[in-house]
Specification:
Helix content: 40-55%
Number of strands: 14
Radius of gyration: 34 Å
Largest sheet: 5 strands, antiparallel
Shape: flat
Order of helices and strands: HHHHEHHEEEEEEEEHEEEEHHEHHH
Length: about 475
């Protein structure tokens, strides 16, 4: 079975296979740019000027694509996931799945690629649902989701990856080699194939009733099956910035030492400080003779090209990258942006992160709900109870100034309750509701002790014998 046969079997459009091919190429391009492997077209002369040896010139760049990805990913941090009826089970399940590192991988990938996935399986040894990060299709490996016509429900999914193929050759020798595998996931079945021949290896029932893959989309739209990479609109600007860097470096190399022009005589080579340069004519036999009166010699120096124009051009391009992605970025020259301009860029970034939190939060909620269903279907111990409503709470997307938080809390200290005052201070000191309850209880106990001492009673309510 091929991609086209799968499209026919599932009733997909005639262009589905070509759409997947195009999508894979774009995803591969996004990953290359985030890693610094940019499209480079340096001539042999340019490589010589830039002192690049070998055939790889793709990493001669200033990689702002990765800065954009990391800046957003750093602000996407899950604070907690709470369940209406089973928070303890959810917390234990997420801790077992190392949610701290898992979410970092998922969020970075979805911002960079536009799409990424979490697969929900089951670990029979520890009796726990297993959440694993799966990358989107890049033309060679990865996950391909298949949606219904309304693009609201995943009806199937493909996962392609490299595995080890262990077999016996014609000489009866064991041979181990890499070979691609492919799984086709349906709501009620899983089919496993060799990808090159589509030979069926195994099929098994899936008792959950949902495809075990959760789709995370960046800048997702309700009517679109795929998300949009954060760096998609800035690839051309990144290319322009790289080209500016090449021109700047070449100009710097040429201008580091003055370029001189010898007029009327061959330019000497191997010039050293203090040396003599002789300007002579030679006769027919090659013997040096003095210059005749009609011979003129001269030396001139070419003016160096200033780098200021290149720096200004680079700053302009970086400013456009910053504006388009709404990401505060450091520039090459002195950043003359006003404080208000910098504040607006920060506001734009925070707004974008909060928007991403809504879509990604829905995906995380579905991943937890699906994990509960898998546990109930396959669990032999530690089976998930009814989870009820799932709520994902995110860490604050804004960069917090602790001094401002404390100062603002003190301004309203006399106008709010003690508990609310402590809640305002909680982000600075890391207090949760339980810690706040303890502080309030301790303060109340101290107050009772003082009042008891004043009235002749101990803090425990008994009469003071003194």
């Amino acid at each position: 079975m091929s991609f086209s046969e799968i499209a026919s079997r599932l009733g997909l459009s005639a262009t589905w296979e070509s759409d997947i091919t195009t999508w894979g190429k774009r995803v591969k391009l996004y990953r290359d740019y985030a890693e610094g492997n940019h499209r480079g077209n340096l001539s042999s002369r340019m490589k010589e000027m830039l002192r690049i040896s070998g055939g790889d010139d793709t990493e001669f760049n200033i990689n702002y694509c990765n800065m954009v990805v990391q800046t957003i990913a750093d602000r996407l941090v899950i604070g907690s996931v709470q369940s209406e009826k089973a928070s303890d089970w959810v917390g234990a399940m997420l801790a077992w799945n190392s949610i701290e590192s898992l979410q970092m991988d998922v969020h970075e990938a979805v911002i960079r690629d536009g799409d990424t996935f979490v697969m929900v399986g089951y670990d029979d040894v520890d009796n726990m649902p297993k959440l694993s990060h799966e990358l989107a299709w890049d033309g060679e490996v990865g996950v391909v989701p298949i949606y219904d016509p309304s693009n609201t429900l995943i009806i199937a999914a493909l996962k392609v990856w490299w595995a080890v193929y262990d077999t016996i050759d014609e000489n009866n020798k064991r041979v181990v080699m890499p070979r691609q595998r492919c799984n086709l996931y349906l709501p009620d079945m899983v089919y496993k194939y060799w990808f090159d021949t589509w030979e069926l290896i195994e099929e098994s029932e899936w008792a959950v009733g949902y495809v075990p893959l959760v789709h995370f989309r960046h800048n997702g739209r309700a009517n679109l099956a795929r998300g949009i990479s954060e760096i998609a609109p800035i690839l051309g600007l990144q290319d322009s910035l790289n080209r500016t860097l090449v021109s700047m470096t070449m100009t710097s190399e040429l201008s580091a030492f003055g370029i001189r022009v010898a007029i009327g005589f061959p330019a000497p080579t191997g010039v050293t400080p203090g040396m003599w340069i002789e300007v002579l004519e030679r006769d027919a036999d090659g013997n040096p003779i003095g210059l005749s009166n009609d011979k003129n010699v001269d030396v001139k120096e070419l003016n160096a090209t200033p780098l200021v124009q290149y720096i200004e051009q680079a700053d302009f391009i970086i400013g456009q990258i910053s504006a388009i992605t709404r990401t505060p970025l450091a520039r090459m020259g002195s950043d003359a942006s006003s404080g208000e301009s910098l504040k607006q860029r920060e506001i734009g970034l925070v707004a974008k992160v909060k928007k991403a939190q809504v879509r990604l939060g829905e995906a995380w909620m579905w991943a937890v709900e699906l994990a509960g269903m898998v546990s109930q279907a396959y669990g032999r111990a530690n089976v998930a109870p009814d989870l009820g409503t799932i709520v994902v709470r995110w860490a604050n997307a804004e960069v917090r100034n602790d001094n401002d938080v404390v100062a603002n809390a003190r301004q309203v200290r006399d106008d709010v309750s003690k508990r609310e005052y402590l809640r305002l201070l909680a982000p600075v000191f890391g207090w949760d509701d339980e810690a706040i309850d303890k502080i309030v209880a301790d303060k109340r106990g101290e107050t009772l002790d003082v009042l008891g001492a004043i009235n002749g009673f101990g803090g425990n309510g008994r009469v003071n014998p003194v």
